[in-house]
Amino acid sequence: MAIFSKSNVPQFSVDVYQNEYLPEGGREVNAVVTVTATGGGTIGSAVAAPHLYSPGEGPSAAVVLMVDCSGSMDYPPTKMRNARDATAAAVDTLRDGVHFAVVAGTHLAREVYPCEGGLAVAGPDTREQAKQALRKLSAGGGTAIGTWLRRADRLLASADVAIRHGILLTDGRNEHESPEDLKAALDACAGRFTCDARGVGTDWEVKEVTGIASALLGTADIVADPTGLAADFTQMMETAMGKEVADVSLRLWTPAGATVTFVKQVAPTVEELTGRRTEAGPRAGDYPLGSWGDESRDYHLCVEVPPAAVGQEMLAARVSLVIPHSDGSVQNLGAQGLVRAVWTDDLAASTSINPQVAHYTGQAELAEVIQEGLDLRKVGDMDGATAKLGRAVQLASASGNADTAKLLAKVVDVVDAATGTVRLKAKVEEADEMTLETRSTKTVRVKK
Question: Which of 32, 127, 217, 338 is most buried, judging by how many CB atoms fall within 10 Å of its CB?
Answer without folding.
Answer: 32
